[in-house]
């Protein structure tokens, strides 16, 4: 019997059939929210972004980024021009509604429409945005765009395995850990192990619904402090959906 025919007689497990229609590519669009709005990054954002994210006090925020820190506005402006011309990654500026000024950056990257997979990355929040509702809303706005408008089935979060704040943030937002890619990259001359996380489309109702409910006005007191944490809210959403 030919080897090929032997292979054909063996019962081999296969994954489920899925819709093979490609997802749409991200566009340079505005994504408005209650606390922040995501807009396509542009050169006009450079001065405010430099003030928000650069300077000696902010240099540690660039430790795990692929670029930076930037010592001068001129160097940073060149960087922003490069970001603005890119389509993969597609970069967004986070505009704070409190100040009407740019407060941070994030992007969609490693975009694979045929497999309906993309990644959120290049996340950089200035101090004024960190630990605020707007920081969570920025991720929610991008996730809603990825799953509900563009039609992706998997959304990834990757970070340097030594970047503990990023790992904690991924899991707080509802991304599930998938393991470690050892010696995955060389970044700024140093070896990087990469921690992988993801949300898949079947989880978005809970993950996205949890963020949306957490962001509701009633979840914050008069001083802007949360009444319930995101993980607690997400667990409640999961329970309600399970009971339906």
Tell me about this structure.
With 244 residues, the chain is of the alpha+beta class. Helices cover 32% and strands 27% of the residues. It is built from seven helices and eight strands. It has helices at 3-9, 46-53, 73-85, 133-149, 164-173, 204-214, 230-242; strands at 31-32, 36-40, 90-96, 101-112, 117-125, 154-160, 176-187, 190-200. The chain has an eight-stranded mixed β-sheet with strand order 1-2-3-4-5-6-8-7, with helices on both faces. The protein is globular and about 65 Å long.
Secondary-structure class? alpha+beta
Helix percentage range:
25-40%
Count of runs of 4 or more consecutive helical residues: 7
Could you give the order of the helices and strands?
HEEHHEEEHEHEEHH
Average residue-wise pLDDT: 95
* Outline type: globular
| Spatial order of strands in the largest sheet | 1-2-3-4-5-6-8-7
The CA-CA distance between the termini, in Å, is 54 Å
The total beta strand count reads 8
pLDDT < 50 runs, ≥5 residues:
none
**Oligomeric state of the chains?**
single chain
Strand content bin: 25-35%
Rg estimate, integer Å: 20 Å
The biggest beta sheet is recorded as: 8 strands, mixed
Brief overview:
The protein is of the alpha+beta class and 244 residues long. The protein is 32% helix and 27% strand.
Write a concise keyword list for the protein shown above.
244 residues, alpha+beta, 8 strands, 27% strand
